[in-house]
Amino acid sequence: MNAAVAAEAIRxxxxxxxxxxxxxxxxxxxxESAVELILTAFFAGGHVLIEGVPGxxxxxxxRSLAQALDxxxxxxxxxxxxxxxxxxxxxxxxxxxDGRREFVFVPGPVFAHVLLADEINRATPKTQSALLEAMxxxxxxxxxxxxxxxxxxxxxxxxNPIEMEGTYRLPEAQLDRFFFKVVLDYPSEVELERxxxxxxxxxxxxxxxxxxxxxxxxxxxxxxxxxxxVLVAPHIERYVATLVRLTGTEDTATRYVAYxxxxxxxxxxxxxxxxxxxxxxxxxxxxxxxxxxxxxxxRHRLVLNFAAGAAGVDADQIVTRVLASARRARP
Length: 331
What we know:
The radius of gyration is 21 Å and the shape is globular. It has 2 domains: about 1-80 and about 110-230, 3-Layer(aba) Sandwich (Rossmann fold); about 230-330, Magnesium chelatase subunit I, C-Terminal domain (Helicase, Ruva Protein, domain 3, Orthogonal Bundle). The chain has 16 helices and 11 strands. The protein is an alpha/beta fold. Helices cover about 50% and strands about 15% of the residues. The longest helix is centred in the first third of the chain and has 25 residues, at about 5-25.
């Protein structure tokens, strides 16, 4: 790719990203940083776990993203009685015009470009695991037959941190499949005033598609491939590898972390940094790009021990200290 073509491709990526972010901003008040992280994960080809109290816009962000990109959208409200077939789909007996009966596969809500798994921790581990194959391999297997999912496939799962009764802890293997974990803060007073004004008026704001329906999926896949082409220098790869190792070996981590980040955490760092590099108009990644995505990439991949809970230390504090330690070690 020559310099002129690369510059044009980067501008196209910037314009598309900005346009989608602007459309989401028409209906979502605040959460600018969270929306940017969600879009970063989307264009990097990963899935997102969103944590926040009820009523602050988790579902609205996801639905607006699908509308802005003109992609198909499905929502699953996870409950304790939800079964795996309610997500993936099932086979039913269908009778043809000739009277013959045969099994026909009826796709579930997972067969969509954007899937919202609302309050995923309310379902049993068996049902939660129904998403693992879809998230990892973009396919589902029902009754021994594999059905591919049309790209792009993007899962956003939500967690409610204040109501834990009747919930099930997400397995570490499933948490590791999420590219980022994004935490939505409660809106400020100014943002709350805007929310009240925009949601109670006679003409609520609407989201307009940025991409055409016929070409949306193709364009998104093209932009995702562009992200993969961003250059990463060897010293950046070494820095990322150091960060991953420090999450389990740094002095603070050894006291409070039972298990550090997996290699997928390093992959999320590099791919997320590549998106930020494109947004900044660069075809290469810098250390600052990596640092900006460290918190959402690592916070759900650290398994903390009892000492961390007793000392009031959370994953974000540990990641912050790991970043500081890595910066001091840089030449």
